Amino acid sequence: MYGKGILKGLSVTWKRFWDTYTDDISWMLKGKKRYNSVEGVAHRSSKNTKGIFTVQYPEEQLIVPEEFRFIPFLVYDEGAEGKKEIRCTSCGICAKVCPPQCIWIVRTNDPATGRPVPVPTDFHIDMDICMNCGFCAEYCPFDAIKMDHKFDIASYQRNVYGMDQLLKPAKYYAEIRPENYHREEEARKAKEAAKAAKAEAAPAA
Amino acid sequence: MATPLTMTVDLVARFPGKVTADRRPGYTGFSVNNENLVEVATAIRDEFGYDLLTAVTAVDYIAENKMEVVYHAYKTTGGAGLVFKVQAERVDPIEVPSLINLWAGVDFQEREAWDLYGIKFTGHPDLRRILMWEGYDGHPLRKDWKEPFFEEEAKPFKSRWPDGKFAFAENKNPFRDNLNFPKDFDPENFVVEKEEDLYLSLERDSLKDTAGNMKTDHIVVNMGPHHPSTHGVLRVAVQLDGETIIGLKPVMGYLHRNHDKIGERNTYLQIIPYTDRLDYFNSMSNNFGYVIAVEKLMKIQVAERAEYIRVIMAELSRIQNHLIFIGMLMNDLGAMYTPSLYAFEERELILDIFEAVSGARMMCNYFRFGGVVRDVPEFALKKIQDLVSDRLPAKTDEMERFLNENEILMARLKGIHVLNAEEAINYSVTGPVLRATGVPYDLRRADPYSVYDRFDFDVAVRHNGDMMDNYLIRFDEIRQSLRILEQALKQIPQGPINSQKPAYQVRVPAGEAYGRIESPKGELGYYLISNGKPNPYRYHVRPASFVNLQCVEKMCIGTKIADFVALVAMLDIVMGELDR
Question: Considering only the top CATH level, what class is B4-122?
Answer without folding.
Answer: alpha beta
